[in-house]
Each structure stands twice: as C-alpha cells, then as structure tokens.
Amino acid sequence: MTSVHTSARTPTRGKPSDAPARPIAWAMLSRALSVPLILGLVCFLPAVIAAQPGSGVRDTAYWLQLVLTCYAGARLATMILSTRRRLLQGVFWMFVYIAMGVAPFAQVVIGQTPTPMVGPRQDLVTAIAMILVGCAAYDLGALLASRRPLRRRTPAARGPGGGPARAHPVRLRLLVLLAFAASAFYVLKLGGPAVFFSSRQEINETVAASGVVTEGSNVGSAFIKGFGQVPALLALLFYTRRLATSRRARRTPSTVLVWVALAALNLVVNNPISNARYWFLTVLMAFVFTAFPSSAAFYRTVLTTGVVGALVVFPYADKFRYEEGGERPVQSASVFDPLVTKDYDQMVMFANTISWVDTRGHTYGRQLTGSALFFVPRAVWSGKPEDTGVRVGQWMGLRMTNLSAPLWTEFWVDLGPAGMVGGMALIGYAAARTDRRYALAVTRAGPGSGSVLAIAAPLIAGYTFILLRGPLLQAVGKLAIAALCLVLITTFREQRAAHRR
C-alpha cells in the first residue's frame, strides 16, 4: 500500500539541493501566511460585514450564518495552507465560503436578498442549519476517504492492458477532428464567428431562431452548444498537458500548431463574452490546473484570489450578458451591495425550496431522475420534470425563473434531510478519493502526458461551481458530453510513447 503523500519527485540532475529547499521554503512561507490568512477569512471579513449598516435582525439565522461563514472560512484556509493539493475539495470550500457563507451573511446583516423569501423566517433558519449539516457530512465523507489507503490496482482490475487510464493517441486525434467539426457546425449554425463576440442575449436569440429549440424543450440547443464547446475544450486540455509535461512535444511543430489552432477555436466558442460566467470559470480553472499541474503556488493562488474575484469581479462580469443599452445598471453604494442584489441567491432559494416542499411534499427521486435522463426530449417524455429552480420560481409566482438550486436542495427535494446528509457525505468521499488519485497522476511520471485523470480532475473542479450552484438538470448536459468523450478516447494499454520526453 502506498499513500498518495509518500511519493516524492526525483531531484533534478545537477541540482540535488533543490529537492529539500522547496518544502522547507514553503513551510516557512506557510507559517508566515497562516495567521493573517486564517484571521482574514475567519475573523476580519465576517467582522467587516457584521459592522455594515442595515435593517437585518440579529436572530438565530444571523448567528447560524456567522457560524457557517467562519466554519467555511476555516476549512478554506486549511485547503490553501495544506501541503497536499486538494483540488476538488478546495473548490468546494471556496464556493461554500462565498456563496453559502459571506454573501448570505451580508444579506442577513443588510436585510436584503436577491430573490424574495416567501416562507417564514424559520425556513431560512432551517436552510442555514441544513447547509451546516451538509458541510459536516461532506467533511465526514472526506475524512473516511482519507482513512482508506489507496491500493495498487492489479493488472486485471486496471483493464485489459494493466496500465492507468490514458488517452489513446489515435482516438485523441479523432477527438481533435470532432472538436473542429462540431465547433464549426455550431459557429455556422449561429451565423458565423461575429455573433460570439456580441452578447449572450444575441447568442440565445440566435439559437432560438435557428430551429433547434422546440417549444418546452431545450435538448436540441443543449446538444449543439455542448458538442460545440466541450470537445474543443477537452482537446485543448490534452494538448496543453502534452506541451506542459513533454519536452519532445514542445519541439514538435505539428503538436504546437494543433495547440495554437485549438486555442484559437476555444477563443471563439468558449470566450467570456458569449458564455455564462460559470462556464468560462470552468474553462479558465481547467486550463490553469492543466497547464500547471504540479505547481502548489498556482493552486494556492487560485483559491486565495478566487475569494477576492468572487467578491469584486464576478458580480460585474455579466457586462456582456445584454446588448448595449440593455444591461442592468450597477449600483455600488457599498462594496457588499453586489452580494445582496445580484447572483448569490443560493441560501434564500434553499429557504424557498423548503417552503415549497412543505406545501407540495418531497418528490422521491423524480427530480434527480429527470436530471439523469436530461437527454430525453419532452416530446417523448411529456411528464419530464422541469429544473428545480424553475419549479420553485413558478410556485413563487415570479416571471424570471432562472434561479439557482444548490446541490443541497436537489437532495432535499427528492430525499429529505437524511438523503441530503447521505448525498453530501458521498460527494465528500468521492472528492477526497479523486483528489488523492489526481495527486498521483500529476506528481508521478507513470501516467505520462496522456493521463485521463490529470485532465478530468481539473475539468470537474472547474465545473464544481456549476454543479453546486444548480439546477442540476441544466448542469449535467455538458458534464455527460465530457464523460462520453473521455470514455471514447480512454485506453488502459501501456503506451511506450507516453513515457518519451
């Protein structure tokens, strides 16, 4: 049995002193950063928010929200300061700290929410308490995963060839061809590249006018968008890893030219102007973690600056959502105004979902089944469930039903409190196990530049924001397309070329 943390990188030839210097230098740096980082996340920022003027009541909801914010801040600080790169867990706690901690705490203090709360105040108290319980269950699942050692798989368990999962070279080239063909069809279907540099509103209107959207069903548009964007991103990530890990690849003009062409393709179909912010965040994080797979500095920088970006940049990053003259005016009387007037409606939507369930009852797997069968058109399945956020919004009587449904609510609606606790524990367990496997994939030379896990883990980490924000029915489409592409190009046979540098 070999733990993921026992593997060490071979010292660079001619520089034997570099190996011990790096951990010693980081240990000194981490001690210097630990106190201000923990104080900033756990004490300073919550205290600044608590001091803001507002009409909020300091009741049970206030104190529970403060506890949740401090708890998530402490866990995020642990992820940042840890010598072990916990990719999926780090992103999870960054989301919880901002979307379920800092933002809802500011809303409680100021007394304003992005979406009206239709139920009693007690439902908000229940929502905050359940988020806390879900986070504790996630931590418990991660703890159980860390207690179980990673076993070396036997050749029979690994696959026909006995090796780790890699991208088959020929199939990877086919993925590149698929990426260019699918993206070209996507671009031409929408009228050319120019529309991708206008606004999301124009993109949506063009898709609606293209004839791929039928009344009451978005399956056609979801497939066109998904295949137009996901294969291009995956191909770019595989070639980025190849260039980052193989000196031979960097000296091969054909590989470099393919990477340049894929980068240009992604600038068209996956740019931040015509795409949702959460999707571009997925693209950015997946690319950064793929380009710098073993850089602890980049990992910690992403988590640290992510907090600042979520507070300052993200609420204003929808500038290109609307056409010129149609964008929403930005009001910034306080630095925390964006947290109570814009995108962070996760906590209040959980409270509204609790109110909805109290009146309608649990759906006992119906919503999750609809998400799993997202590809079935409504013309075939007339009773196909709608997004959880849409259903709650309609029950609330809102005209705009593009509302969030955080993962906690998906479990709550279908399975109740026990199901939510069990679901979050399973997710914590899976995230911790994936983090450990990913650490092996990027720190050992074995899997080589074609390691599937070294690509899949960063992609899932970036997509975690979309999965956690919800609704799940909207989120699973691109994830399923990515999984399909990875399955089709994966091989377990040893490839000698994978070890060349």
What do these coordinates show?
The protein has helices at residues 18-50, 60-81, 87-110, 121-147, 155-158, 169-189, 200-209, 219-245, 247-250, 253-269, 277-291, 296-312, 337-341, 346-360, 366-372, 388-396, 407-443, 453-469, 472-489, and strands at 166-167, 490-491. Helix 4 crosses helix 14 (346-360), helix 4 (121-147) runs parallel beside helix 17 and helix 11 (277-291) packs antiparallel against helix 18 (453-469). With 501 residues, the chain is an all-alpha fold. The model is unreliable at 1-29, 154-162, 322-332 and 497-501 (pLDDT under 50). 66% of the residues lie in helices and 1% in strands.
Give the topology.
Elements (H helix, E strand, L loop, with lengths): L17 H33 L9 H22 L5 H24 L10 H27 L7 H4 L7 E2 L1 H21 L10 H10 L9 H27 L1 H4 L2 H17 L7 H15 L4 H17 L24 H5 L4 H15 L5 H7 L15 H9 L10 H37 L9 H17 L2 H18 E2 L10
Antiparallel strand pairs: 1-2
Helix pairs in contact: 1-2, 1-3, 2-3, 2-4, 2-12, 3-12, 3-18, 4-14, 4-17, 6-8, 8-10, 8-11, 8-19, 11-18, 14-16, 14-17, 15-19, 17-18, 18-19
